[in-house]
Amino acid sequence: MSKKSGKEVLLENRKARFLYFLSDFLVAGMVLTGTEIKSLRQGNASLSDSYVYLKNGEAFVANMHISPYKDGTIYNVDPLRDRKLLLTKQELRHLERDLQGTGLTVVPTKVFLDRGYAKMEIALAKGKKAHDKRDAIKEREEKVRMGKALRDGRKADE
User: Which of 25, 32, 48, 85 is the most buried (most CB within 10 A)?
Assistant: First the structure.
């Protein structure tokens, strides 16, 4: 079986973009079992409420739900188990330095396949206040309204 050359996005954490200001994006490999990767390819996973933590110089993602593979037997594992992320020592030190003493956390933003390997995009996140969220909602509604106005304007010209 040949590995695909492009990147295929499997999951996206849109909730994180709404709840946090995101910066310093990194791409990390993921340590998964065979049945987990099969279930992930089928789209049976969720990134909501997941976060990344550092322990003993290693990074792990917690609360990432990957449903058991339907054809997996004894090889299925706990759907909510902590999964190890593969980062370089330099990237781990950088994350550790950024997390010390600040109100920052690390959240996963995307899971994708890169040449057949599961990768996760993670980002440093700072929580948004309520007024920041209201501004984001207002901007989104304004974009929709502008799109409708442009579309209606084109119909009137025809």
Answer: 85
